[in-house]
């Protein structure tokens, strides 16, 4: 008799018949292995999400400090220029008031530019 006749009617398979208990054991072992891999991946994904949260928090703080310094610098430069013009020309409060307002407007413009740069995904065309 041929080995092919001993199998369950499949011609040319060459593998012996496997019992249900053995298949059930293999299935449970495979299930445990899959659960183990899923648990490892879940831990890895949690670590990645924590590092992304830290990165986004530090990026937000960096942007806040940058915007704050843009505002303060603009107002201080405007006030300093106004005070200097008042001292040179003798136009007591008017130079200070005008340049303080110009510094305020310039600082708002710089803050809007800085905030707009961070929202951009691609660099502007024609820029260096």
Could you describe the 3D structure shown?
The radius of gyration is 36 Å and the shape is rod-shaped. The chain is built from 3 helices and no strands. It has 128 residues and is an all-alpha fold. The mean pLDDT is 81. The longest helix has 70 residues, at 20-89. It has helices at 3-6, 20-89, 92-119. Helix 2 (20-89) packs antiparallel against helix 3 (92-119).
Instruction: Please give the largest β-sheet.
Output: none
Which percent band covers the strand fraction?
Answer: under 5%
Number of beta-strand segments? 0
What is the rounded Rg? Answer: 36 Å
Order of helices and strands: HHH
Number of helices: 3
Helical coverage, percent range: over 70%
Low-pLDDT residue intervals, each spanning 5 or more residues: none
Q: How many domains?
A: 1
Rounded to the nearest angstrom, the distance between the terminal CA atoms is 82 Å
Helix vs. strand class: mainly alpha
What is the general shape? rod-shaped
Q: Mean pLDDT, nearest integer?
A: 81
Pfam family, one: ATPase_gene1
Keywords: Membrane, Transmembrane, Transmembrane helix
Transmembrane segments: 63-85, 91-112
Protein name: AtpZ/AtpI family protein
């Amino acid at each position: 008799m041929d080995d092919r006749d001993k199998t369950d009617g499949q011609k040319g398979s060459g593998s012996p018949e496997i019992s249900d208990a053995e298949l059930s054991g293999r299935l449970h072992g495979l299930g445990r292995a899959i659960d183990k891999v899923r648990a490892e991946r879940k831990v890895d994904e949690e670590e990645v999400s924590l590092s992304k949260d830290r990165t986004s928090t530090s990026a937000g703080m960096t942007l806040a400090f940058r915007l704050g310094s843009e505002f303060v610098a603009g107002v201080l430069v405007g006030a300093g220029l106004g005070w200097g013009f008042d001292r040179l020309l003798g136009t007591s409060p008017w130079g200070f008031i005008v340049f303080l307002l110009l510094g305020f407007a310039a600082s708002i413009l710089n803050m809007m530019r800085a905030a707009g740069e961070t929202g951009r995904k691609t660099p502007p065309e024609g820029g260096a």
